[in-house]
């Protein structure tokens, strides 16, 4: 069904339920109080270092239960006892959390030979797929019950498997002399024909478990040199030579292999043709090297047992994945019947009775072959639709975001896996992680994460700074896919933590917000004061153009220097370069005689006419502006300190602090001065911004360091 035009859509009513979350004593965060609107996109915007990732981790760990939250215990509380414990209140409804962050990308995405860990579970193993599998398995239920009911036969299968494992063959089909079975035969005759000096140990060597006794005797042998007494019974006059001969004749591991081999033959013996069983038993008592014909006998025996086991394995595993690639299902099933006439070594009465039951069950399945073929076909159709839909959706996103990669979902053993390839190179990339850039990995991982969310339906989805590293085109493509696309997570309770204002601009302010209306976006600005994080709603009218912000603050400011701070900001953002910007630049550097750079580190003074023209333009905004009077007043450190103390706006404090550095430059922290000058010289990230007077985005540590250094400044 096509989507109606946007103008015809009516967005559902916004969610009425919100969770009041209080996070305490986690890492460097003392308290964080946030709201989460359920079934909505909650955007929390704030500067780096404020504690957004700690909020994400706290909510994730709290859902894990037990003592998981203790991982966030602040360093100041890690010694001693009686300290406050990390806690999250108000999140009782959040039982499961799925979080997208760097850990998710590294642990689940771009595995070797698979794009996403558990591709099958996320993309194919839907409820519909599972139901289809169950319908197919019902058709083979009677056959599978046969294996379950034949408990004795099941034990024999394990014994047959052991025989195949210990009697390995070479590529030419000859029995390998390096296998455990061949080596075990070498000791079989010695156990049957015990050397004369060791016949006193016959009862031990021919017991049901000679290997354990040989191992015990070998351990005791190491104590023979400690005394003339027997280390086993402590009597006088032990025959040390005879005691040592046991280990020389019977190596522990070989005896153990022979014991296991005999046990396997005893368990599975009655499934062998009697003549073959007699030959096999005789070979386990050889006192000479096996003859070539004997080795060929064992190789043939092993080959027939292996064929039989593989057929049983196929029959036991009959399911959709074993039949999905069979074009002629009826012929395939018919070919699975066991013909013991061709497996002469197993053609015993016992085996015949079991095989007859199995073959009859296969005949019952064959009688319903039309139903089998129909259900296999239906399941193939389901898988095809799932693959096509998922591939199309992901590849459409990759194309829209400008990535030259594509994915394909292909069968793998009893599962499916998603592979990735580049448009310029045939075949899939075995190690996609080494080919994709950081941004490509994150963008791709986000979309795959979206599918996992749809599959698992967690109570809370956390996106920890998901799109800040992308350019505008890719950023919007990702947001659109996550909260607007066919498989979007718009109906999930989602917490997006970001230091990037653009998602709020796109989703809350611009005309594009209509596209995200069904996600019920709610945006907040996070601020931190002395370890406590609080939030303030960001409404459509709070996102203004930089010009609107500057004009509003120029009009609202009562102090002319504050007006000039925002005027300079506005002119620099607009790219104005004339006499007014030259005058303002000199003013903020507190130069008594205004000048300009002329290259090579040299400067030249501004002419009186230039100063007059610039001052006149500034006077249109700040009436009565006089460069000399203003500079003279600002060169008084106490005056600047008073202005610094009078404002509570971080951005304004930083600009005043920069001016104070022109008078008194603390020598103890030159790095901080450079940081302040370069980072907070001008805010020009977006055309649209939040008013710094209403949403103070200057990190608290910067303001506090400015305050500390201002307190140290003295008039010289």
From TrEMBL:
Keywords: DNA damage, DNA repair, SOS response. InterPro entries: CR006_AAA, P-loop_NTPase. Residues 359-500 form the Protein CR006 P-loop domain. Gene3D superfamilies: P-loop containing nucleotide triphosphate hydrolases. GO terms for biological process: DNA synthesis involved in DNA repair; double-strand break repair; SOS response. Pfam families: AAA_13. It comes from the Bacteria. PANTHER family: DNA REPLICATION AND REPAIR PROTEIN RECF. This is AAA family ATPase. It comes from Agromyces intestinalis.
């Amino acid at each position: 069904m096509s989507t109606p035009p946007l103008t015809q859509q009516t967005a559902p009513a916004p969610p009425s339920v919100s969770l009041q979350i209080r996070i305490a004593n986690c890492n460097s965060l003392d308290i964080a109080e946030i709201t989460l609107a359920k079934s909505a996109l909650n955007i929390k915007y704030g500067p780096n270092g404020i504690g957004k990732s700690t909020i994400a981790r706290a909510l994730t760990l709290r859902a894990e239960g037990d003592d998981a939250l203790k991982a966030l215990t602040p360093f100041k509380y890690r010694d001693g006892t009686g300290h406050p414990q990390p806690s999250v209140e108000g999140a009782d409804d959040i039982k499961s959390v799925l979080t997208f962050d760097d850990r998710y990308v590294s642990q689940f995405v771009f595995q070797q030979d698979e794009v996403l860990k558990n591709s099958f579970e996320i993309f194919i193993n839907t409820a519909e797929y599972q139901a289809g599998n169950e319908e197919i398995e019902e058709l083979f239920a009677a056959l599978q019950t046969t294996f379950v009911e034949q408990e004795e036969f099941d034990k024999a299968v394990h014994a047959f498997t052991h025989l195949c494992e210990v009697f390995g063959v070479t590529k030419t089909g000859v029995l390998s002399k390096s296998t455990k079975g061949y080596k075990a035969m070498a000791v079989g005759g010695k156990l049957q024909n015990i050397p004369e000096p060791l016949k006193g140990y016959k009862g031990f060597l021919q017991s049901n478990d000679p290997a354990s006794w040989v191992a015990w005797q070998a351990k005791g042998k190491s104590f023979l040199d400690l005394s003339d007494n027997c280390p086993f019974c402590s009597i006088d006059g032990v025959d040390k030579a005879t005691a040592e001969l046991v280990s020389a004749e019977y190596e522990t591991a070989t005896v153990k292999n022979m014991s296991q081999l005999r046990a396997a033959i005893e368990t599975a013996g009655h499934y062998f043709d009697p003549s073959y069983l007699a030959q096999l038993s005789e070979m386990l008592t050889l006192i000479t090297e096996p003859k070539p014909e004997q080795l060929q006998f064992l190789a043939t025996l092993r080959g027939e047992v292996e064929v039989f086991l593989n057929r049983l394995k196929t029959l036991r595993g009959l399911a959709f994945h074993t039949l999905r690639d069979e074009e002629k299902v009826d012929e395939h099933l018919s070919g699975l019947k066991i013909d013991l006439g061709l497996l002469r070594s197993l053609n015993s009465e016992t085996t015949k009775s079991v095989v007859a039951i199995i073959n009859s069950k296969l005949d019952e399945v064959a009688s319903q072959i039309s139903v089998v073929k129909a259900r296999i076909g239906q399941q193939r159709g389901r898988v095809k639709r799932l693959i096509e839909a998922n591939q199309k959706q992901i590849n459409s996103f990759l194309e829209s975001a400008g990535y030259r990669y594509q994915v394909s979902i292909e069968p793998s053993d009893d599962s499916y896996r998603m592979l990735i390839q580049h448009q310029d190179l045939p075949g899939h990339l075995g190690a996609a992680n080494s080919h994709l850039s950081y941004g490509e990995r994150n963008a791709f991982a986000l979309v795959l994460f979206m599918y996992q969310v749809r599959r698992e339906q967690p109570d809370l989805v956390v996106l920890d700074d998901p799109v800040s590293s992308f350019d505008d085109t890719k950023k919007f493509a990702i947001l659109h896919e996550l909260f607007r696309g066919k498989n979007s997570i718009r109906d999930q309770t989602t917490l997006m933590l970001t230091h990037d204002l653009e998602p709020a601009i796109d989703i809350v302010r611009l005309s594009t917000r209509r596209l995200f209306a069904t996600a019920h976006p709610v945006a907040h600005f996070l601020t931190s004061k002395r370890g406590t994080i609080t939030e303030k709603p960001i409404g459509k009218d709070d996102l203004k153009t930089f010009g609107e912000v500057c004009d509003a603050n120029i009009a609202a400011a009562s102090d002319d220097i504050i007006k000039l701070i925002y005027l300079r900001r506005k002119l620099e953002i607009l790219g104005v370069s004339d006499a007014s910007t030259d005058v303002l630049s000199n003013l903020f550097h507190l130069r008594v005689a205004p000048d300009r750079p002329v290259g090579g580190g040299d400067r030249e003074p501004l002419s009186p006419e230039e100063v007059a023209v610039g001052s006149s333009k500034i006077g249109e905004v700040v009436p009565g502006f006089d460069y000399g009077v203003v500079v003279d007043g600002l060169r008084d450190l106490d005056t600047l300190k008073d202005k610094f103390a009078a404002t509570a706006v971080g951005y304004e404090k930083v600009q005043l602090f920069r001016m104070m550095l022109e008078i008194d430059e603390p020598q103890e922290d030159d790095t901080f001065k450079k940081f302040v000058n370069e980072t907070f010289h001008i805010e020009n990230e977006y055309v649209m911004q939040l008013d710094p007077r209403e949403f103070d985005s200057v990190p608290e540590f910067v303001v506090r360091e400015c305050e500390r250094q201002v307190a140290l400044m003295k008039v010289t």
